[in-house]
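ping. complex inputs:
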Amino acid sequence: TRPASRPRILLKAPTLQEMEEMNIFEDEDSP
Amino acid sequence: RPVNIPRREKDFQGMLEYKQEDELKLVKNLILELKPRGVAVNLIPGLPAYILFMCLRHADYVNDDQKVRTLLTSTINSIKKILKKRGDDFETVSFWLSNTCRFLHCLKQYSGDESFMKHNTPKQNEHCLSNFDLAEYRQVLSDLAIQIYQQLIKCMENILQPMIVSGMLEHETIQGVSGVKPTGLRKRTSSIADEGTYTLESILRQLSAFHSTMCQHGTDPELIKQVVKQQFYIIGAVTLNNLLLRKDMCSWSKGMQIRYNVSQLEEWLRDKSLMMCGAKETLEPLIQAAQLLQVKKKTDEDAEAICSLCNCLSTAQIVKVLNLYTPVNEFEERVSVAFIRTIQTRLRDRCETPQLLMDTKVIYPVTFPFNPSSLALESIQIPGSLNLGFLTRV
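pong. complex structure:
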């Protein structure tokens, strides 16, 4: 169990749109 | 020599270890190439969501923020991609709606936030994320779930839409009510028409098919209620709009047929224990229009009764039904112009928009109430059919 005293680090998230722009399937999608 | 002894379940910590380079293979096998109608039929509901969450737990456990980030991004992009490709398939959309919601519930249930831990077992509390707060990613997933929900509604609408006018208005199941056609003749003509015609039975069968698919996918009961409410709204709105545009649908006997059809829809709700989901209430304008076709429309008292009865219909809709009302036998008569004027005068002070047709494209706002799971992550086994042999249970 994690110690209660240690706070978790907030991971900043991109928006849905920004995520789409980092297209992980780029190679696969291109003709 | 080491002997390979299978580990006991209690030794597992409910995590799945994977190499960074296998991430693409993971989303490919688990999201992009998974067929809801094939392999997924025999899976425990929400299994893809649990597997992804257990992978995420491991990335969090080893304190690798980059691994957490890329897994979440790949997961979300893969779900979007599969919905772009198969977004017109109700089963695919329903499957990923329920899995996205389950993934979101897991992120809350194991976030370490006390408000989401109330129903956790001590073991589940031990499984909370150790290093990262994923509140912002929860928001992104919730946005994604809204998008998928809207896609599900569109998909369901495309299937239901062509059935509604035929099944709710045109097809007559109450024999001999309509006085204009001899029963024998109607029977003959309808048997030809029936081949390409939808009936109320087709609509009920379709509703049951949607419902059973969502149940099979483990969709949250609260979410099913919202989908059903939306389905009933569409059925009610499309039926009413067509009634308001067609003189042949405005008769006493059509009123009778519509009331019977509505009672069958209510019966369907009762059968599925969905009477309290607000679906029946969305049919109220249609129910009132059907009653309007059947009540007396002659005296001042009748006008008063109509005005208090039709509180879900606009003045424009009431007047339109009265204008279109067509007697089909000698016992009925047209509505007089004077009577319609009386109604208009009585309703003059009503505050309302002069709307005639209902907006069939309205989508009620959706919510995803938190629904924690009692499933123990350490007990989850991955079927070989998923081709995820590169994941290691930890």
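The longest helix of chain A spans residues 16-21.
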